[in-house]
Amino acid sequence: MLNYKNILDKQAKIKTNELSLTENVQSFLSRIENQKDINAFNFIFEDVLDNAKVVEEKIHNGTAGKLAGMVIAVKDVLSIKDRPLACSSNILEEFHSIYSATSVQKLIDEDALIIGKTNCDEFAMGSSNENSAFGNVLNPVDKTRVPGGSSGGSAAAVAAGFCDVALGTDTGGSIRQPASFCGVFGLKPTYGRVSRYGLTAFASSFDSIGPFANNIEDIAAVLNVMSGKDELDSTSIDDPVPEFNIEIDISRKIKVGIPQEYFSEGLNSEVKKSIENYISKISSDKVEFVDIHLKHNDYAIATYYILTTAEASANLSRYDGVRYGY
After folding, report:
1. Which of 105-109, 287-291, 308-312, 321-325 has the weakest average pLDDT?
2. What is the DSSP string of 146-215?
3. What positions carry a catalytic annotation?
4. Among residues 116, 171, 178, 319, which is most buried (max CB within 10 A)?
5. Could you tell me the residue ranges of all domains in the chain?
6. 7-247: CATH homologous superfamily?
7. C-alpha angle 243/245/250, rounded to 5°?
8. In this predicted model, what pLDDT tens digit does every residue of 111-138 receive, in sequence order?
9. How far, in Å, CA of 139 to CA of 147, rounded?
């Protein structure tokens, strides 16, 4: 697998010629080709190799951006100029974006390398990645199981070692759930922290764009770059962007709440045991876990379905069969 810990380690090894970026990118492409059955990608961008040569030179001469050399896959609901945007649907089979999503453009501006567009549930509606015109995505951990969804292709791509980082979107768990299923890190940022401009909307007042990675440092590095106010998205937050990738000095005890409603009937006993074992493992004099109750929990799912289906019906009405269709 990868012989570097995170993006900073990767950049350092490229600079000292311990690692060739072009060979690194080629290894990702080869791995994708050799494991096509996972079906994590809808589109692969072969020009990523040419872009890698340019970025590698910039790393060596000291002019590279913050994410130089980071190989990123992008969920196929985010726009990239002149690239296909299908949303895993036949409705948009021939469509190419005429502009780039702010979140993606910020990554490109910092010399990240976009390797392709990942499979997902059609129009990001689903939780298993079995609802795609491009076919099911398999879970690299166990190919008899689903990767979760709707960002299943992104989670699977990271878990399978097809890229360093992948972008997903989360409306009602579509980053958090597949990250859990595939055993990788996934972050749903606070709504408005990352601009939604260029995202094909599912439910506009819920959608968030966030990263998957195999380490926390890369999650933080990507969030640092993507965050911030965007004049093209009126719902983006006009707050200072903290340095997420600075190691936190824990000088006081942290109290972590464990919602008891999440340990209800229907939770797999093995999953429950695994969570409880991990809580016990990381409990210390610096971290205290306490039971809490979320009294609104019984109403959350019903409310979610009422609001998101209403917003989705409005957003999908633009695909009217005149300008789009299959």
Report:
1. 321-325
2. ---SSSHHHHHHHHTTS-SEEEEEESSSTTHHHHHHHTSEE--PPTTSB--TTB--SSTTT-EEEEEESS
3. 75, 150, 174
4. 178
5. 7-247
6. Amidase signature (AS) domain (3.90.1300.10)
7. 90
8. 999 999 999 999 999 999 999 999 999 9
9. 4
